């Protein structure tokens, strides 16, 4: 994921360059923090949308012998859990 953060940080750095100028050569910690924050927001939004899609599949098939409804709930929860793990990896919990 650090490669993705670096690519996003370069994009942020480049977007901040004034029109007609070249971006600074070095990435700053601010660029990396901005990239990390943007990725956390994107993970939350995309992950929740994926979880909603999984649930909607279960709702479409309903309660029947296929077990789709129960499976879709499990998939939705797995998506949410994985997104939380990824977010924690990006922003480890701080000690109290």
Describe what you observe in this structure.
- It is a single chain.
- By secondary structure, this protein is mostly helical.
- The protein has one domain.
- The protein has three helices and no strands.
- The protein has helices at residues 2-16, 29-61, 68-90.
- α2 packs antiparallel against α3.
- It is elongated.
- It starts with a helix and ends in a 6-residue tail after the last helix.
Short synopsis of the structure:
The chain is mainly α and 96 residues long. It is built from 3 helices and no strands. It has one domain.
Please tag this protein with its features.
0% strand, 3 helices, single chain, 96 residues, mainly alpha
Distance between the termini: 26 Å
Shape: elongated
Secondary structure: number of strands: 0
Number of helical segments? 3
The largest sheet is: none
Mean pLDDT: 85
The run of helices and strands is HHH
What is the alpha-carbon Rg in Å?
A: 19 Å
Residue ranges: pLDDT <50 for 5 or more in a row? none
Alpha-beta classification? mainly alpha
Q: How many structural domains are formed by the residues?
A: 1
Q: Tell me the helix content.
A: over 70%
Strand content: under 5%
